[in-house]
Design brief:
It is found in: Mitochondrion matrix. This is Complex 1 LYR protein domain-containing protein. This protein is mainly α. It has a domain of 66 residues. The chain is built from three helices and no strands. Helix 1 packs antiparallel against helix 2 and helix 1 packs parallel to helix 3.
């Protein structure tokens, strides 16, 4: 099935959101602590990192599902949603944004 230009833009934005979620925050090793404490903290940090990434993925999925029923022939609404999504993506891609709910 061939997609229209707007449909391709929506898919491109969705993939960009999921890729950005995968880049959310990296946790560095804690070198100044004893090894057993570092392992526990790093394991906990990895779980938090995965939870954070999952929160971003879920937020993206939620937004796209919320607007899934917009008529594909309503070009104005679709274009407005794409612009709004692109702005949110730019904002949430900022390194200062650590988590989303």
């Amino acid at each position: 099935m061939r997609h229209s230009g707007l449909q391709r833009e929506v898919l491109k934005l969705y993939r960009a959101c999921l890729r950005a979620a995968g880049k959310k925050p990296e946790v560095g090793p804690l070198l100044s602590k004893p090894r057993h404490i570092c392992q526990a903290v790093i394991s906990h940090s990895t779980l938090l990192q995965q939870a954070t990434r999952e929160n971003f993925r879920n937020a993206a999925r939620r937004e796209f599902r919320k607007n899934q029923k917009v008529d594909k022939k309503d070009f104005g609404a679709v274009e407005a949603l794409i612009r709004m999504g692109a702005r949110k993506l730019e904002l949430y891609s900022s390194p200062g944004v650590r988590d989303i709910h």
